[in-house]
């Protein structure tokens, strides 16, 4: 009987374990039949903003306008300077059930948020709800319908078979070219850039005068080609080559011979001084505007910093060199079939116990897709509105038509950058999203950074070096543990363990303690019988 009691105690501990695991689990969100406008609801909104006071003002106005329509809802905004910080804080807050209600983030990050139980609300049912969904009949604002959101951008918000976000703004990468220097070197810009052309011009630009200055700019400093986001550089290169990167099942395919060839090309041109990266040398815009760079690749959202007439500058005006700026698609291996990445923030809604609170959050998230918000925000930088409703609006078309009328709101480089994405939306792509996909992205850039840094330190980049680099980066980002199940999300601080995980570990400890006690008692009894 005592043996049975011990076994029962063990089973009880296991049941306790199961109960503990489920105690904090969130339930699926169900759309309320009606939004209760008599109930006071407070929601939190986390967004990213650097120092752009205009963007902050747009957020504040959106909140003010929304609260005027729904006076029972109070929106509290928290601004971050970096999407990575939003990601880390969300992960930490999942364990304490203190996530925000609405968050501007990326699908790669949402995939990790989903490791929590019902943490992020799937939005498909909300999209289709006839009253409170996209274009719903009971909304107090002019929401776009599903068909009025650019389909490529909406598809990017799918994880598995469900939408877990709505797009907010979109950008791609552009190559900002000092056309004046290209022509001074004896070249003519093609209609579409190729990698071979960029490398050829960059190498030609390394020619120097007898006094050691560079012939093309007469200065002591020149880095002809600078890439801001090396993860994008690698990802887009592989996509253009039709090479492997990762798949939707979470298999990491990055460490292959095509990647090796890209790295060898980077090493070759780094050795001559023709290439560098943002992390190693600094912002491409600063070098471009000072006449110290010819090809600067950065986001179209950063267009207001690019060019000698740029409204935003990080260098003193006396350092700026006058030149003609051309905005072009990134270099291609096959210019007849261009491929470029789609990027930019999306909006997700977090699940809460109160369905009215979740519905209020959804209403606010949806409000950020209205024309007033979309057009105003896109005009601050080279972003493109994510709805065809906003893109086709007369106000936005008038804005585009005034390209170059001034060097502020209608700065030509900024508007050209937005048009670049509008004209190439069908040529964009996104990488597969899964728990840990953010780590694969980071790893792809780390490969280029490590090669560039090593060459500058006079190291030899050969096959043996790259083999070692592959192993180092796999280990750094925990990509040496198989597919999606082995990807832990990289170096990000994931915060405290969720309560359910703590309960699991505690339950296992209790179970093994009880087993140990039982085994010890049986052993003592056996000795007594001897």
Structure commentary:
This protein is of the alpha/beta class. Helix content is 44%, strand content 11%. It is built from 20 helices and 16 strands. Strands 2-1-3-14-6 form a 5-stranded mixed sheet. The protein has a 5-stranded mixed sheet with strand order 10-9-11-8-12, with helices on both faces. It has a two-stranded antiparallel ribbon with strand order 4-5. Helix 2 (53-69) runs antiparallel to helix 14 (371-378). The radius of gyration is 27 Å and the shape is globular. The chain starts with a helix and ends with a helix. Residues 1-25 and 483-498 have low confidence and may be disordered.
Give the topology.
Blueprint: H1 2-23, E1 41-48, H2 53-69, E2 73-80, H3 83-94, E3 102-105, H4 107-113, H5 124-128, H6 151-155, E4 158-159, E5 162-163, E6 166-167, E7 169-170, E8 173-178, H7 179-184, H8 195-204, E9 225-227, H9 230-241, H10 257-271, E10 275-277, H11 278-281, H12 284-289, E11 295-299, E12 325-329, E13 340-341, E14 346-349, H13 355-367, H14 371-378, E15 384-385, H15 388-391, H16 394-401, H17 412-424, E16 428-429, H18 437-456, H19 463-476, H20 499-529
Parallel strand pairs: 1-2, 1-3, 9-10, 9-11, 13-16
Antiparallel strand pairs: 3-14, 4-5, 6-14, 7-15, 8-11, 8-12
């Amino acid at each position: 009987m005592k043996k049975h009691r011990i076994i029962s105690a063990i089973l009880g501990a296991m049941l306790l374990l199961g109960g503990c695991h489920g105690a904090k689990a969130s339930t699926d969100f169900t759309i309320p039949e009606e939004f209760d406008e008599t109930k006071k609801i407070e929601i939190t909104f986390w967004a990213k903003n650097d120092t752009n006071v205009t963007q902050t003002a747009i957020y504040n106005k959106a909140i003010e306008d929304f609260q005027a329509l729904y006076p029972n809802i109070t929106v509290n905004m928290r601004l971050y300077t970096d999407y990575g910080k939003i990601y880390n804080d969300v992960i930490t807050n999942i364990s304490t059930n203190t996530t925000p209600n609405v968050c501007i983030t990326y699908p790669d990050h949402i995939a990790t948020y989903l490791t929590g139980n019902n943490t992020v609300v799937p939005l498909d049912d909300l999209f289709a709800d006839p009253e409170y969904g996209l274009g719903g009949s009971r909304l107090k604002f002019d929401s776009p319908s599903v068909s009025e959101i650019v389909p490529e951008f909406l598809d990017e918000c799918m994880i598995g078979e469900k939408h877990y976000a709505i797009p907010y703004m979109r950008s791609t990468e552009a190559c900002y070219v000092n056309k004046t220097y290209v022509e001074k070197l004896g070249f003519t810009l093609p209609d579409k850039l190729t990698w071979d052309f960029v490398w050829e011009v960059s190498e030609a630009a390394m020619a120097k005068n007898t006094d050691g200055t560079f012939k093309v700019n007469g200065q002591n400093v020149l880095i002809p080609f600078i890439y801001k986001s090396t993860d994008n550089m690698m990802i887009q290169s592989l996509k253009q080559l039709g090479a492997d990167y990762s798949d939707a099942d979470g298999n990491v395919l990055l460490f292959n011979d095509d990647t090796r060839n890209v790295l060898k090309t980077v090493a070759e041109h780094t050795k001559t001084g023709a290439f560098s990266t943002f992390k190693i040398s600094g912002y491409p815009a600063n070098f471009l505007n000072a006449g110290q760079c010819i090809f600067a690749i950065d986001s179209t959202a950063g267009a207001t910093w690019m060019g000698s007439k740029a409204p935003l500058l990080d260098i003193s005006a006396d350092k700026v060199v006058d030149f003609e700026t051309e905005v072009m698609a990134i270099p291609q291996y096959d210019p007849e079939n261009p491929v470029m990445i789609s990027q930019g923030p999306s909006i997700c809604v977090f699940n809460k116990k109160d369905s009215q609170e979740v519905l209020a959050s959804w209403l606010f998230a949806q409000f950020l897709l209205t024309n007033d918000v979309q057009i105003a925000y896109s005009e601050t930088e080279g972003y493109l509105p994510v709805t065809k409703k906003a893109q086709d609006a007369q106000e936005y078309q008038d804005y585009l038509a005034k390209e170059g009328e001034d060097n502020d709101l209608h700065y030509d480089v900024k508007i050209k950058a937005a048009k670049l994405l509008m004209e190439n939306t069908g040529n964009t792509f996104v990488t597969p999203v899964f728990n840990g996909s953010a780590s694969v992205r980071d790893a792809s850039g780390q490969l280029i950074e490590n090669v560039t840094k090593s060459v500058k330190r006079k190291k030899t980049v050969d096959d043996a070096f790259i083999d070692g680099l592959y192993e180092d980066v796999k280990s750094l980002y925990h990509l040496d543990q198989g597919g999606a199940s082995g990807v832990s999300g990289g170096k990000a601080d994931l915060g405290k363990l969720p309560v359910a995980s703590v309960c699991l570990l505690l339950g296992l400890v209790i179970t093994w303690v009880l087993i140990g006690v039982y085994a010890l008692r049986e052993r003592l009894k056996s000795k007594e019988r001897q």
